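Aim 2, interim progress: modelling of the MTE-bound target.
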Amino acid sequence: MQRVRLLMGALVGVLLTAPLMALLYLGEQAAGLPFPPFDLFDWLARTLPGDVIGKSIEVMVDTIREFDLGETSSAAKRIETLSGLLMFFGGGVAAGAVLFWGLARLKNLTGAARYLSGIVIAALLGIPAILISLKMGVYDTSTTTSVFWLALAFFVWGAALGWSYDRLYPAEFETIPIQTSAPVSAMKINRREFIIRVGSSTATLTILGAGVGYYLEYAEEKSYRDQIRKNRQAAAATASKLPNQNDPVIPAPGTRAEYTPLEDHYRIDINVRPAEIDAASWRLNIKGLVDHPLALSIDDLMNNYEPMDQYVTLACISNSVGGDLTSTTLWTGACLQDVLADAGLQPKAAHLKITSSDGFYETVALDLVNSERRVMLAYHWDGIPLLYEHGYPLRIYIPDRYGMKQPKWITDIEVIEHDEEGYWVERGWDKVAQMRATSVVDVAASDSLFEQDGVTYVPVGGIAHAGARGISKVEVKVDDGEWAEARLRSPLSDTTWVIWRYDWPFSDGRHVFEVRCYEGDGTPQIAERQSSHPSGATGIDRLSRNM
Ligand SMILES: Nc1nc2c(c(=O)[nH]1)N[C@H]1C(S)=C(S)[C@@H](COP(=O)(O)O)O[C@H]1N2
Ligand SMILES: [Mo]
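Predicted structure of the complex, ligand included:
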């Protein structure tokens, strides 16, 4: 009997948690109130031990590749979104099951005590949820309003659980042993009716809440996209052509885009949903060991410093050889050396601790900043203000380092004396995170064969990248042949990837294409296969094709 109660509790949990989530979502979309499921996910991602997180990311990335779930970083965000929703939903269903099971054992609890039990269970779930939301979320509403709203929602939900139990299993039937089967079947019919009634009203609430919430989110998203389009049009007027547009080396058809369309740029961060910072009230605080602490607006950064344009290839340290967690676009920003000069560094200043609105942080050595004018505080990508997901309004660029060293959504730069570990360094990743030299075969374009002097060629191509160290040579090996030199297209800048191309005399059958590269100073890339943890993936990329 207790098992049946447990299942009934889970069912009621389903029926009541769905509208709870839908209404919380509606509250978020309509009034900027907290939405705990995503906060819960983000909190877990920050709190669980680094190796657990590392392992989960690895499994997720492998799964996405294995099952071809599309571009890695957006598939990962979809999985994370779904996990947040499912965890919260699972918690609600489990609470229903536990409550019903408990009340079945405590037979003599009646009326009010049952409601109270529901509210206690709700509090066990709700109080942590409220605390986590307050800690994690950046919401429009005041703390009091947020707490009141969440407490009310959980209270009503818990009371509804208790009430459902009381209606399904009236106290007077619990204590008297049932003699005949007539009341039992009557009760069963009542239960079925009750579930159907509750189910249809909560389904209506769920659909309404989620529907209106989704409409509001969609409308906001649309106006955001319209804004981006306007920014684009304004930028297009002044945009210049890519610097290598006349290069004779044309990428083999099927090679990834040399300049990544902005909407395809990979995205990796510790948030289910990106921070949406209001730039009008936002300031960059420069503090610590400085003579003049600064609070710069985005206009200050754009107007008081000569804008720097740099084509940049960014890569995530979690990227696998040949993976898609790397992209190239045009970054614009202010030189960090110039900004720091205005703050006036004190003699003991040695490191910069950069903090972001999402709780992310990293430390950069001043030695590096002082020796590298290309380190910049970037506010534009592809000629327009950074998109929310890429760090609006401000992020840093540090040449030759993986993305994990380069905070988005920056709010503070504190000048400090002693080095500190950054977010991912504390979780076991490489302290320096210098980009590895890697080369990738994107394509052996057997549908783009061409003939020259009576020989049929198949264009083979891909990219090679070694951070800011440049690429001097790329070589290709087909099957058991010799390593042969590929042609290199001049890159967009000294820090972007290089497109290579190799036209191979076609022969049909199955062939294996391998590639390796050399850094600017001739250092060969690491040929040994190594996974991305903790210092970035290495190894020879190979592509096997039937032609
Ligand atoms: N504030 C903040 N900055 C961050 C991160 C983050 O989680 N939070 N992730 C870093 C990592 S691991 C990478 S790979 C890059 C990715 O930048 P993108 O999403 O704009 O491509 O952002 C970096 N900066
Ligand atoms: Mo990353």
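The mean pLDDT is 95. DSSP finds twelve helices and 19 strands in the chain.
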